Predict the structure.
Amino acid sequence: MKKRRWNSGWLFLLPALIAFIMFKYYPILSGITISFFRYQIMKPPGVFIGFGNYIRAFRDPYVLNALKNNLEFWAIMLILNFWVPLVLAIMVNEVKKFKGLIRTLFYIPAILPSVVVTVLWKYIWQPDYGLANYILGQAGLPHQLWLNSTFLVKWCMRYPYLFIFAGLSAGMDFIIYLASLNNVPKELYESAQIDGAGFWSKLFSLTLPTIRPTISMLLITNTIAIFNLFDEPKIMTGGGPAKSTETLVLYAFDKAYTGGEYSYAITITTIAFVIVFLLTILQMRMQKRANR
């Protein structure tokens, strides 16, 4: 009876499993295979060159620059998009009144399409009719070419646009954190209260250790999102000026659809995948060690 139930379970799972393999794993494995060839889309399968594309990538200064930009975005994400929603969720969890209203207000930005918000943000920094130069003009200061300066673009695009990223995705993270906090057994808080524990003692000894799996999961998903950044830098600056905002995915896109170097582009995305995979494994091992 158990065997028949097990077989029927796999029977229902099989269509979804086949679709997942066809549209997820097959493209990934096919892409990794192509990265070992000098591939031309009109003349497949191309010439086998082994690790030639990978050697070229690690010697390519533009790949290293894009990787540096991704790592900078990731470091800023740890502050803006990872800890800020957690702190907000902890604060809202302590609120007794209007919790539903506050939760809704924090979640509203997550509904907005990131492309639309990025376009609006770009208009703020337009040299002719942007809000930033309008404010400077009203103050009697000269207008600036915000998105054309490698120095200024860091302040008007690279760092602030992560506020956009944080605002759009932090709403979802905030809701997940809040749900996790609500699932902490109230009996534990009552016992800690009886023992004389204060807010900070309960936070670091009870709350954070209890929701650690949620924190770990969101750290992994946010890391994946950062290394897949494409829309925002593509729309605002196209990776410029002087590739100061270019990411690995954006550089791979340009190589594939501007330069026609598909195998090299796949190599770059494979490197990004390996980096994210290693960071994920590291985080999971740290989580296991912390749970012991």
User: Anything to note?
Assistant: The mean pLDDT is 81.
